[in-house]
Amino acid sequence: MKYQYSSAAVLTTGIAALLATPLLFVIYSALTTDGALWIRLWQTRLPFLFSNTLSLLLAVGLISLVLGVSLAWIMARYEFTGKRIWKWLVLLPFAMPGYVLAYAYATIMAPGGIFHNFWVLIGGDLASMPSLYSFWGVALILSLVNYPYVYLLTYMSLLKTNAHYEESALLAGASKTRVAWSITLPMARPAIIAGLALALMEVLADYGTVALLRYPTFTEAIVRQMQARFDPYGAAAIGAVVLILTISLMLIERYFRGRKSYTQVVGGARAYQPQKLRGKSLVLVSGFFLLIAVFAFFAPVAMLIRLSLMGSVIPDLLSSLLSSLIVAFIGATVAVVVVLPIAYLNVRNKTFLSKISSYAVAMGYSLPGPVIAVGLTLLVTTFVPALFGGFVVLIFAYLVRFSPIALQSQEAAIQQVSTNLEDAARILGKSPIQTVREITLSLIKPAVFTAWILVFVDIIKELPATMMLRPLAFDTLAIQVWMMASEELWELAAAPALLIVIVGLFPIIYFVGKMEQGGGGRDGKGI
Amino acid sequence: MDRKLKFSLKTALIAAAVILMAFGIPATKALAGELVIYSGRHYVDAIMDEFTKQTGIKLTFHRGGTVELFNRMMAEGDRTPADLLITVDAGTLERARIAGALHPFTSDVINLAIPAKLRAPDNSWVGLTTRTRVIVYNPELVTQEEIDLLNSYSAVTLPQFKGRLGIRTGSNVYPQSHAAMMIAQRGEAYTLAWLKGLVRNAGDNIFPSDMRVVEAVAAGEVHLGLVNNYYVYRGLLDPKWNIPPTRLAYIVPEQATDQLGQAFNISGIAISAHSKNKENAVKFIEFLTGAAANADIAQGNHEYPANPAAAALPQMRPLIELRLSPVPLAVMARYMVPAIDLIDKAGYR
Fold first, then answer.
1. Chain B contact for A390, CB < 8 A?
2. What is the CATH number of domain A33-262+278-311?
3. Among candidate residues B243, B289, B336, the one with its CA nearest the CA of residue B109
4. Of the candidates A215, A229, A488, which has its C-beta nearest B209's C-beta?
5. Beta strand B224-228 pairing with B165-168
6. pLDDT by residue, tens only, chain B of 349 residues
7. Which candidate, A388, A514, A396, A374, places its Cα nearest to that of A459?
8. CATH 1.10.3720.10 occupies which residues in chain A?
């Protein structure tokens, strides 16, 4: 059956090409940069940034792996009191941008803060008090906000594992530990690695946490290169190095996500029957969950609430909230609309071009905000200077970064719509456009809405690209948190930070609700 | 709901979004004669109102970080809506001048009011207030012997101050221009050693603002620090802080003739090369450098007025008693990028 391929193909390729321009421009600028700059960067910064960034990735990867997999294991394999609540609680850190968690802990560890006072109380030597402004401080904060990626994907995968394999192994006399290591975990490995890759991409993209805690990474160096030196070409060069890292992570993630069928469910597949936890093990497990929930969510949120109630609220809180809501609304709406034709074409009429388009858009998710901002700054100031510092550029940056989320969820949804339905509508005399509108769109509406929420929340939380591209005096909630927190005006940052966390809770509530209904569906990317 | 209606609703929303975005395009369009000012410093509004009252020229301020505004102006190029740029340091202004973003001009009024040392040679930028780098300390925690020892910037890097020193982040222009001035006088090796000493002695006590350093000194979190002079006065004189002098005092270092002289900087103003209102802009600078307004803006922030005829706060140590670094600010500014490089190299975050 024929759709208007040619015009649709032109449209989708156009959109994809547009969304890929910042990335291409960063690469182009880096390639055409003269060698002297590279030599200077190599002599002054690159090796040190490499070791800083890689060691951070390693540490966060390990911690998230341990936290995520152990939580997922317990959740999938055991039945215990309060499990329904814990299912929510372990996902709560998704609502916390790293910079909010870092800021909350900075207030807790600062002189006069709870931890500082506690340390003094127990007679600890202040000189040997653990410092948040250290490698492990940064690694812990970033692990606490990103372990849910590993957790969620691992959990989903463990739920789907066929119990037969494990039971057979047990019957054959293998020990439980041996079964776990040689059967269960290897089967869940694709999911675990995909989750890990997502978490690490977030670490690479993070600016707020590392900048607030003064731990230099590639992303932080890009912003610094732009802001302190106003050197967009140097920034683009560092950006290109980051790209190699993030794109390889993205490819790893895609590769392993595609291999989910490892746990194929054919014929007599049977879900694992969770074991009941009682007594000492119940206490231990509950304690573990509580510990994580308190450290990753309740303690910092309690601190934010306490600081918010201390009286001084920034005067423009309301207008900041409004600014955030407006750009997030526009960005999310445009994102779900522009990727629709790309998703549709790539599912229904897969061609080389449609695949390339889909990849070009998806690539955006691997771009850290500062890299997009550098690419856009170079691009816009070179070709359309009139647009610089306007909303169009800012929204465009959001599209590049977050429309992949919309693309992925719509592609998945369209895949599930049977072509028979569309054919039937065509036979009954509907035009192709009518068919898409009345059949496909109405069937994928939930997925579109899901994507909309995810993009909306991600835009609210986004910091570095907003910071580098926003119109003058356009202060979103994230910007307010950042400006106040980086000046250590702790109380003033609290209210906008709290608002961001509250907005971030919505998708979690929504998705856990959906998971409870047994849908599962999404892999949690980008929540 | 009817599906058609739903669809038209969606279309309307998208249309609304597009229109909203389109309206966002022009950054700021100025009224005729109005001055748009990118300001990295907050001045008392009353002084600005006074200018509008006297001349009828409307002022629109866009406030932000000095470097942020400078970057924005550079990126906007000849489309910048800014007529004037106000910054908290001369280094940024000189970089803007070298980049061709500023408009040089001649004004006898300004030439008379502001000493040549505090202006660009061609008046591309003009100093409004002078600020100096001092060593702030807590008299309850630093002994007299130590105070005697602290007569140079390098003294704060001595081993006995390890863990007792507070400094501001190296990403800020104040430490950067301080280091630039030092490079101009003593070279890169000397400056790098100094920066490394700062980092060693400060440890975790790196603060996001000079005011936080002052607060930390007064609270005893650290015993001494490096800050701009007016933050000390703000801590002592501003009712919001009201720190007693028993807990907050400062040292003016580098006063001997063989020493560096006190590092200093300005807050300054410049006209954008692309301003359409250059005459009004000159008028505004003449107003701000005039003795009355200049005294007001300096006193409002406990700084020294750039115009010697304007009075500083009586509580402040007179500028004339201080031996400042002989390095002209335009020369200091040339070493800003090397200074940033050294700061990175020293691991000073």
1. yes
2. 1.10.3720.10
3. B289
4. A488
5. parallel
6. 444 444 455 555 555 555 455 444 444 444 568 999 999 887 767 888 999 999 999 998 888 888 888 888 988 888 899 999 999 999 899 989 998 999 999 999 999 999 998 999 899 999 999 999 999 999 999 999 999 999 999 999 999 999 999 999 998 999 999 999 999 999 999 999 999 999 999 998 999 889 999 999 999 999 999 999 999 999 999 888 899 999 999 999 999 999 999 999 999 999 999 999 999 999 999 999 999 999 999 998 899 999 999 999 999 999 999 999 999 999 999 999 899 999 988 989 8
7. A396
8. 1-22+317-474, 33-262+278-311
- Chain A hits for B62, CB-CB cut-off 8 Å, are 472-473
Q: Which of A228, A442, A488 sits opposite B340 (nearest CB)?
A: A228
Note the CATH number of domain A1-22+317-474: 1.10.3720.10
B212 close to A (CB below 8 A): yes
A511, exposed or middle or buried, with CB in 10 Å at 0-12, 13-18, 19+? buried
Which residue matches tokens 């946490």?
Answer: A209
Q: Which of A97, A376, A399, A356 is nearest to A239 (CA)?
A: A376
CB under 8 Å to B348, separation ≥6 — which residues? Answer: B170, B175, B195, B198, B199, B206
Characterise B281 by phi-psi region: left (phi > 0), alpha (psi -120 to 50), beta (else).
alpha
Q: Which residue bears the tokens 């060698």?
A: A35
Q: Give the global pTM.
A: 0.85
Whether residue A388 and residue B75 make contact (CB cut-off 8 A), yes or no, is: yes
Q: Is the ipTM of this complex over 0.90?
A: no
Amino acid at A384: V
Q: Let me know: does B250 contact B142? Beta carbons within 8 Å.
A: no
Tell me the CA end-to-end span of chain B in Å, nearest whole number. 58
Give the closest residue to A29 by CA, choosing from A204, A240, A207.
Answer: A240
Nearest partner of A522 among A152, A162, A200, A265, judged by Cα: A152
CA of A75, closest CA in chain B: separation in Å? 40
Amino acid in position A313:
V
Q: Is A131 in contact with B209 (Cβ distance < 8 A)?
A: no
Q: What is the DSSP string of A416-446?
A: HS-HHHHHHHHHTT--HHHHIIIIIHHHHHH
Contact B14 A45 (CB under 8 A): no
Q: Which of B25, B171, B209 lies at the smallest CB-CB distance from A392?
A: B25
A487 touches chain B (CB under 8 A): yes
In order of start, what are the domains of chain B with their CATH numbers? 35-130+266-316 (3.40.190.10), 131-263+337-345 (3.40.190.10)
Question: What residue type is A393 in one-letter code?
Answer: V
Residue B324 gets which letter from DSSP?
A: B
